[in-house]
Amino acid sequence: xxxxxxLASTLDGRDAANLRGDPITGDRYTxxxxxxxxxxxxxxxxxxxxxxxxxxxEPGDYIVHDFMNESVFCVLQExxxxxxxxxxxxxxxxxxxxxxxxxxxxxxxxxxxxxxxxGVLAKAQDPxxxxxxxxxxxxxxxxxxxxxxxxxxWYTMDEEAPELLDFLxxxxxxxxxxxxDTAVRVFWMKIDLDTNWKxxxxxxxxxxxxxxxxxxxxxxxxxxxxxxxxxxxxxxxxRTVQPMRPSLSDRLPEGVDHxxxxxxxxWDIDPQSYPDFExxxxxxxxxxxxxxxxxWKERGYVHYENMDDEEITDxxxxxxxxxxxxxxxxDNLVFFRTEPHPTDPNKCTFDLWCMAFPVAGxxxxxxxxxxxxxxREAEMQRRAFDNGRGVPExxxxxxxxxxxxxxxxxRGMHSxxxxxxxxxxxxxxxxxxxxxxxxxLEGRR
Length: 445
Known about the structure:
Number of strands: 21
Number of helices: 11
Distance between the termini: 23 Å
Helix content: 10-25%
C-alpha cells in the first residue's frame, strides 16, 4: 500500500471537531444487554489475534484461542499456510482441543472421529452406518478466514469482513520498518481483572493520566501536553507518538540518578557534557538519534537497519480497534489486549506479551513492562490480579499501575453520579473509540 492511500485519512487525535459527541455512559461497561450487542454486531465481525507465528513452526502445530463462549484453533499446514477452524467436532459438537500444541490429526474424545489438520474428516467409527453416506473425506470442520501480520496470527468470524491488511490500515504501512516477526515473546501473562474490557482501550487512548498514575514515566518519555502527536483513523485505530526524552515540566529532585543519563551513556554520550538540563533533554535526544544511526550495526542492533530517526528513539503507542494495543519501542514491542468475560460485563482478561528484538550478545533483555527477562520464548502464566497480589512479577510497572485503577473505574461506572466523560483535547481518541464502536452496534459499519 502506498503512503498516499494509507495516510490520507489521518485525523487529528486532539481535535474534538472530529467527534459527533456521542455520550460515554456507564451502561456501556455494566449492562449484559450492551455486552450482547457487542458480540452480535462487533466481535463477530472484526479480526482477532490468535497468537504468534513463532508458535507455529512445524506442520500440525496449532494455537487455541478461546473468546467468550467461542473457541478457534489455527493449524500450520504442510504447504506453510495456516488454517483456522471452529473448535467443535462436526459430528455432535464436542470440543476437539483445549490447549495449543502439535498433532497430525484431531480426534474427538467422544465418538473417536478423526479430522486431518486440513479440516477434512479422515476416520469415523462404522462409516457405512450413515444413511446419508460415508462422511469420511466429505465432511469438513467449519473454517474461518485466517491471515498474518506483524508476527501475529489473526482470524475473523465474518466472511464479509475486509481483508486483514485493509482492516488494520494504515498500521502495516506505518510499522513496515519494524521486523515484528523476529521479536521474541520473553514474558507472557493472562490476568483476570474485575473490570469491563473497554477500560484498557480507554486507558491506552490517552496519556493524560500518566503524571498521576505513572510518575516514573516523564523522566524518560516526554508526556508534556503539547509534545506528543495524536493521530486517529476512520477504522477506529489511533496512536500517540511521544519522544523518548525527559519531560521539561516534570523534574527529578537534585541528586537523584536520572534514567536518561544511563540511556545516553549506553550510546557513548556523556550526560555531563551539556550545560543544563534543558539542553541535555533536547540536544541529547538529537545526539542519541545520531549515535544510534552511527553505531547500530557494530553493536548488533540489526532491527534498526530500516528504522527512521523517530522509530529508533521514540514511542508510538498504538491502539488497534477494538481491543489490541501495541507499544512500539526502539528495542521492544509490548502487546496488550483485553477480552470480555463470557457472561459478566464487569470482568475481562488482560493479556500482557513483552517482546524484544534480538541483539547479538544479549542473553537477558529489558522487557519494559516486566523487568529483565531471558531472551527466549516464555511460557504463558494465568493469574488473577487480586488487587495486585496475584502478579508480583510486574509490581509497580506501568501496566500494574493501570490495572490497580481498573476496579475503581468499573465501580464508578455503576454510579448514578456518572453521566458522561468530560474530556480534555488530548483525550479525544477516547470518545472516538466509543463512536466507532457505536457505528458497529448501530449498523453503520
